[in-house]
Amino acid sequence: MILVIGVDCASSQESADRPKIETKQKADRPITTDGQARTKAGEAKNPNLLVAQPHPEAAQTDASEDARKRGQEASEYWVILGRRAKATDWLLVLFTGLLVAGNTLLWLTTRKAANAAKLSAEIAEKALIDLERAVVVLKEIHRGDLVKDPKTGEDYAMINVEIENGGSTRTRHLIVHVAFKVFPLGELTEGNLPVDFDYPDVDTGNEPASFVIGPKATNKLAPFGIPLGALERMGKEEARGYMWGWVEYDDIFAGTPRHRTEFCVWARKVTPPYSAARIEWAAYKHHNGMDEECPPERFRTTKGGVWIEPRRSRIPAT
Question: How far apart (Å, rounded) are the C-alpha atoms in residues 230 and 149?
Fold first, then answer.
């Protein structure tokens, strides 16, 4: 008991000698926030605890990184025509436009080449047809034998007309007609056929027949006769003799039009003796041509050798 009392006394004495701590807060001390108070309280309890403080260099690095990211982001965007979009989007649009333009140009070029190839093929086909198809022309006119008409007893100099197929293929549905007439000079216009002369067919009493001429072949038509009296008037230049005609035919190629050849010649000179007269023929300045050179209204037949109705009028044979 004495020991305990002594300690208490000592403690009381030590407490009396310890200076008093003033607890009143000075007015000019800054007010401590709750967070600061807790921090300080933690520091007071654990003086070894380190509190992380922001480093100035680290803060500056973060700001630089943010600025770099913002600059990079700004460089990724373009403004065109008042619209802001990523550069990759504009590049994609540009690439798509170039691709469309390239494909369009390729299509136009291909189409042009295809059209050129088609045109070239058509030209080649037409050239082949023109080269290989049948082409019928008047080849020669021959003086034949002297024949006496049994009804009238008049002598006639027979004339043979020969036509030729100069093509490499045969004809189809060929029809030909030849006419001859002696015109007194008074019926001519300055020695020529009248301007309104339409080269009519002559009524021979026979219907022109359809036949075929092979490639590179000729055909002699039925002869016609010129009275010796007419030859004498022609030889004395009191009259002129004209021979005209036409040939209409198809070729063997599909899709081609009906062909027509027109011819007209006149007896430029008749040399006696008239029983064996020598006749020089010359091409007349009109009614000589082929196909498109012949007026459409002169065609007598259509494809397949069908006659165009109504038939044109014929003049009587002399």
Answer: 15
Residue whose pair of structure tokens reads 């067919």 in the numeric block: 201
pLDDT over threshold 80, residue 259: yes
pLDDT at 23 over 80: no
CA-wise closest residue to 279 among 158, 114, 127, 181: 158
313: tokens are: 């009028």
Q: Environment class of residue 133 by beta-carbon count within 10 Å: exposed (0-12), middle (13-18) or buried (19+)?
A: buried
CA distance 274 to 154: 13
Is residue 262 a contact partner of residue 287, using CB atoms and an 8 Å limit? Answer: yes
C-alpha 260/C-alpha 308 separation (Å) is: 14
Q: Pairing between strand 314-316 and 201-203?
A: parallel
Hey, CA dihedral for 34, 35, 38, 40, is it positive or negative? negative
Cis bond before residue 316 (omega within 30° of 0): no
- Return the sign of the alpha-carbon dihedral for residues 12, 16, 17, 20: positive
First CA to last CA distance, the chain: 189
Q: Which segments of the chain does DSSP mark as H helices, in order?
A: 2-17, 34-45, 56-75, 87-132, 228-235
Q: Which two tokens stand for residue 28?
A: 């000019």
Cβ–Cβ < 8 Å for 264, 284:
yes
Longest distance between any two alpha carbons in the chain, whole Å? 203
CA distances to 21, 176, 178 from 11, in Å = 18, 163, 169
- 201, β-bridge pairs: 314
* Strand, coil or helix: 80: strand
Structure tokens at 50: 């380190």
List, in sequence order, every residue forming a beta bridge with 218; answer none if it has no partner: 164
pLDDT in tens, 75-93: 666 666 666 667 677 678 7
What value, to the nearest 5°, has the Cα angle with vertex 236 and ends 235 and 238? 110
